[in-house]
């Protein structure tokens, strides 16, 4: 291998955090041709993890290292969200037992084939949706060798409610809401005003008020569009109608918590 190629590979190895993926198209855009990448693989510096992505040879990678590459190299909005984000933020300690299931969200984008086909050692539950703006409410979480953008607590809570009631239990959502006693009202307000899911907004506000959080008192509810008509999460026979927010909630949720509205 020539001195020039060795210099380039040394620079590349130093610039990529350990435990992360390298996307081939990003390398090509930054002066590492596909032919040069092939040489790196043949020389044992890197190994393919699927069409379009590589990792350092012999290095163990995680789904977080793959998301780091997608966020920083591909400009993707894929991120840990919902229960996974709350757990990473230390807001859902009892959910840590379920770390083999990972919840990811993205702004109406597809998972790359190499990501879907690679064995990460966890079950990936991916949800492509546009009910919130792509980057609003995300915040960095420090990993061992890199920083990863995940949903902040308020956005993660809304993502949980987006999945309720069919893909996440409403009772679990309320338990999570009860623990969010230090949200920043301004950030919550921004997310609620930007959210285009009437169900999510009504449930979020109902649960926040029911939980008695101090930050709820600082929201400007008249600036949040809650839509018209009734929304039912259960049938009227099995639920309780909350006239203030025009939603029918499960009896178990109505009976749970600090108070009723």
Task: Lay out the secondary structure.
Blueprint: H1 3-15, E1 22-23, H2 24-29, H3 34-42, E2 46-50, E3 53-56, H4 63-73, E4 79-80, H5 82-88, E5 101-107, H6 113-117, E6 123-129, E7 138-142, E8 147-151, H7 153-163, H8 170-178, H9 185-194, H10 198-211, E9 231-232, E10 239-242, E11 247-250, H11 251-255
Parallel strand pairs: 5-6, 9-11
Antiparallel strand pairs: 1-3, 2-3, 4-5, 7-8, 10-11
Helix pairs in contact: 5-7, 7-10
Quick take:
It is built from eleven helices and eleven strands. The chain has helices at 3-15, 24-29, 34-42, 63-73, 82-88, 113-117, 153-163, 170-178, 185-194, 198-211, 251-255; strands at 22-23, 46-50, 53-56, 79-80, 101-107, 123-129, 138-142, 147-151, 231-232, 239-242, 247-250. Helix 6 links the parallel strand 5 and strand 6 (123-129).
- Rg over C-alpha atoms, rounded to the nearest angstrom: 22 Å
Distance separating the two termini = 72 Å
Largest sheet: 3 strands, antiparallel
Order of helices and strands: HEHHEEHEHEHEEEHHHHEEEH
**Average pLDDT:** 92
What gross morphology would you assign? elongated
Keywords:
2 domains, 38% helix, elongated, 11 helices, 3-stranded antiparallel sheet, 3-stranded mixed sheet, alpha+beta, 261 residues, 11 strands
